[in-house]
Specification:
The protein is an alpha+beta fold. It has three domains: about 10-200, Galactose-binding domain-like (Jelly Rolls, Sandwich), CATH 2.60.120.260; about 205-290, Immunoglobulin-like (Sandwich), CATH 2.60.40; about 305-500 and about 510-540 and about 570-589, Glycosidases (TIM Barrel). It has nine helices and 32 strands. The strands form eight sheets. It has an eight-stranded parallel barrel. The protein has a six-stranded antiparallel beta sheet with strand order 3-2-5-10-7-8. Strand 21 and strand 22 (about 300-305) form a beta hairpin. Helix 5 runs parallel beside helix 6 (about 415-430). The longest helix is centred in the middle third of the chain and has 18 residues, at about 380-395. The chain is globular. The termini are far apart. The mean pLDDT is about 95. It binds (2S,3S,4S,5R)-3,4,5-trihydroxy-6-oxo-oxane-2-carboxylic acid (GCB). (2S,3S,4S,5R)-3,4,5-trihydroxy-6-oxo-oxane-2-carboxylic acid binds next to loops. One of its GO terms (biological process) is carbohydrate metabolic process. Its EC number is 3.2.1.31. Belongs to the glycosyl hydrolase 2 family. Pfam families: Glyco_hydro_2, Glyco_hydro_2_C, Glyco_hydro_2_N. One of its GO terms (molecular function) is beta-glucuronidase activity.
């Protein structure tokens, strides 16, 4: 019989079904998130020990107590002798037998106390963990974070002494109360797929800065720890150097200014430096106006047609792990297409995406995974969604390239859903009054009208439509556009069909290159010049993995990419769309 240190009863830990209760709270949320832009952190990327744990043995047997004063005996895993992996990483690609693993995995490594002053704070920052992460430091449970694509920070100062063991348990069970829920069209990668770093900060420090244009004013919100009484804001290109009084760590600077505006043609970024106490945060921020008027999107007052393409964060070699090179390749392909806009589907992408788009002058739609069937009446799901949205907005609201927050994708119009999404809209507007909101809404399939009540809440109405693929009659699309009577921009937020690169079949054979070209030609002929349409954002740039796609042409991949999964092989549809955007670009002059 195994021995347990849980209780005198040697078998308790095998029978206790409440073993997780002690690891549900505290929640790590947007409230503890730290803006780490340009901060010099100590990278914790690289080798970590790991173990899969399909039975939650690590909780029952308290594996996390490794690193505490007493080392547990007779345990079924020992992080000091663990197999290793490289983080950021997704376990699906650690070994072939883990490809479809869904469950819990422990990650472990030791860290050093890097504090440069005794009362400094040590903040652990994790770029993303899909889906539920529990953090243990020095044998103690620190907190739990939900949501697979947004960053979180946690103060671990009180638990680090000399060299200290950190364990992070990540589990990605597909559950109906999560976002996304248990059913979605991409591969359910699990892991710690973005940067992990440790920050050594003065006890009193800057938590966040939010700079933007509001009418003729530049506005800078400063959020610091409570002990600071003022901050200094410097924007040299505006000759601006001002002191901001802080109350309870909060302050706002508002000054009339005429900054050189960021635009896709001139993506000018201002150096913005905020200093408070001995702490400094530096960012490069573009100032621009984004609004809607009637059925047009206006950038700096100019009607701008969104020539777009959707993109997933997926890679044959690295899964959800991305890199600046991968992001720049995405943007090179988008530019080659003649696009000015990308929809980042269907969850927050890496923080570098918007940063690089800022520099390159591309516009983005950033969204949270309120996708398909969501438990809209579950208060836990609602809290999770609000937190994911808050973490996304706080992370990216300084990025001029992000012009739309996407709230939801193809969710059915019911009262609980409308209440849930109205709350999310209110939250987005409170955290960021400067951006319009969008969503992929559902149209009425019988009347071919836009009847989704969500459209009343948002500013830019998206429709995903696949006439000529899932639905037959392309004329129905024209009918939807002709009947569209909302005084808001309408964007085709998805359209596309599966094409197997190199398939030379005839135009009436699904999956052939010729079929794809005809599909796109029909779509474009319907949309081109139609007054109702403010943007066209086909589905999508690259083929991506999806476990629910298993026919002969798919074999685990959604093949609607304009470019194949190698991110190199162009399909003919790429050129069809490029020709359309070239015509638009020519007319725009
Ligand atoms: C959609 C979904 C997207 C799917 C796509 C498809 O409407 O929003 O996530 O991948 O269709 O390929 O069917």
């Amino acid at each position: 019989m195994e021995k347990s240190d849980l209780a005198g009863n040697a078998v308790t830990f095998l029978h206790d079904e409440d073993y997780l209760n002690a690891f549900q709270t505290p929640h790590i949320t947007a409230d503890t998130w730290l803006n780490v832009t340009n901060r010099q952190g100590y990278a914790l990327n690289g080798d970590w020990g790991f173990a899969i744990d399909p039975f939650d043995t690590g909780f029952r047997q308290r594996w996390f107590e490794y690193g505490a004063d007493t080392v547990p005996r007779a345990h079924d895993w020992n992080p000091y002798q663990a197999e290793t992996c490289t983080l950021p990483g997704v376990w699906n690609l650690f070994a072939p037998e883990l490809f479809h693993f869904e469950g819990g995995v422990w990650f472990a490594r030791q860290i050093d106390d890097i504090r440069t002053a005794p009362d400094n704070r040590l903040i652990l920052h994790i770029g993303a963990a899909n889906y539920c992460a529990r953090v243990f430091v020095g044998g103690r449970f620190i907190g739990r974070h939900l949501g697979g694509s947004t960053p979180f920070s946690v103060d671990i100062s009180d638990h680090v002494q000399g060299r200290t063991m950190v364990l992070i348990h990540v589990e990605n069970h597909r559950q109906p109360d999560r976002l996304p829920s248990h059913h979605f069209d991409w591969l359910h990668y699990g892991g710690l797929h973005r940067d992990i770093a440790l920050y050594d900060l003065p006890a009193e420090h800057i938590r966040d800065v939010f700079a933007r244009l509001d009418g003729d004013d530049v506005v800078v919100d400063v959020d610091t720890t409570a002990g600071l009484s003022f901050a200094q804001v410097d924007i040299p290109a505006l000759n601006l150097s001002a002191e901001v009084p802080l109350t309870g760590g909060q302050g706002q600077l508002r000054v009339a200014a005429k900054p050189r505006l960021w635009s896709p043609d001139d993506p000018f970024l201002h150096d913005v430096t905020v200093t408070a106490g001995t702490d400094t945060l530096h960012d490069r921020i573009g100032f621009r106006h984004i609004e809607t008027s009637g059925n047009r999107v206006l950038i700096n007052g100019q009607p701008t047609f969104l020539k777009g393409v959707c993109v997933h964060e997926d890679d044959a070699e690295t899964g959800r792990v991305t890199s600046p090179e991968d992001i720049r390749r995405r943007f090179r392909h988008a530019r080659e297409l003649g696009a000015n806009f990308l929809r980042l589907a269907h969850y927050p992408h890496h923080t570098d995406v918007a940063r690089i788009a800022d520099e390159e002058g591309l516009m983005l739609w950033a969204e949270i995974p309120a996708y398909w069937s969501i438990r809209f009446d579950d208060p836990g799901t609602r809290a999770d969604a609000q937190n994911q949205l808050a973490e996304l907005v706080r992370r990216d609201r300084n990025r001029a390239s992000v012009i739309l927050w996407g709230l939801a994708n193809e969710t059915a119009d019911t009262p609980p859903r409308n209440a849930f999404l109205a709350d999310l809209a209110a939250l987005a507007r409170r955290l960021d009054p400067s951006r319009p909101l969008a969503a992929a809404c559902l149209f009425n399939q019988d009347t071919l009208t836009m009847q989704d009540r969500l459209a009343q809440v948002i500013d830019v109405v998206g429709i995903n439509q696949y006439f000529g693929w899932y639905d037959d009659n392309i004329n129905d699309l024209r009918r939807i556009l002709d009947q569209y009577d909302l005084n808001k921009p309408l964007v085709i937020s998805e359209t596309g069909c599966d094409v197997l690169a190199g398939d030379q079949g005839p135009a009436d054979a699904a999956n052939s290159e010729a079929f794809g070209v005809r599909y796109y030609q029909n779509q474009i002929a319907t949309v081109e010049g139609h007054d109702a349409v403010a943007g066209f954002v086909p589905w999508l740039l690259y083929d991506f993995r999806s476990a629910r796609r298993q026919n002969g042409a798919q074999r685990g991949w959604n093949r609607k990419g304009l470019i194949a999964d190698d991110k190199t092989t162009y399909k003919q549809v790429f050129h069809t769309l490029r020709d359309f955007y070239a015509r638009l670009n020519e007319t725009e002059g």
